[in-house]
Amino acid sequence: MKLALPTLGNGGLESKINPHFGKCESVTFVTLENKKIQNISVVTPQGPHSCAALPALFVQNEANVCLVGGIGGRPYMILQEYGIKTYRVDQDLITKSVKEVVDFFISNQLSELEQASCGDHGH
User: What digits encode the pLDDT tens for the residues 36-89?
Assistant: First the structure.
C-alpha cells in the first residue's frame, strides 16, 4: 500500500500535513508493508495550482491512499475516480508529524472521507 500525504516544506516523515490540499509544497509518499513503513519518497509538485494536478501526481507515483487535512469537492471526486481512498487527518492531528499521522492510519484511527471536507479557504 502506498500513501500520499500533501505536506509542508520539504516533506518527509518529520514534516507536517498541509491543511490546504491543493497548495501543498511537497508530497510525501509512504510505502507500507505488513503495517510497517518500507519506503519514503518526496516529490515537489510542478506547475500551477490545479484541482487535477495532485491526483494525477498520486497516480504517477502509484499511491492508492491519500491522507488529507481538508480537500475540496473537485479534487476529492478526481481521487475517487482514480480509485484512491481518502482519509481525514482531523484538526487535533494536523500539527503532528507525517510519521505520527501514518501511525494513526496504521492503527485504524483515521476516518475514510465520504465527501469533500474543505468548504472555505478564500478562493
Answer: 999 999 999 887 666 688 999 999 999 999 999 888 889 999 999 999 999 999
Does the domain at residues 2-112 carry the CATH identifier 3.30.70.890?
no
Using CA atoms, how far apart are residues 15 and 23, in angstroms rounded to an integer? 15
Domain ranges of the chain: 2-112
Taking the model in full, what pTM does it have? 0.91
Strand order in the sheet with 2-7: 36-43, 26-33, 2-7, 65-68, 85-88, 111-112
As a whole number of angstroms, the distance between CA 95 and CA 62 comes to 26
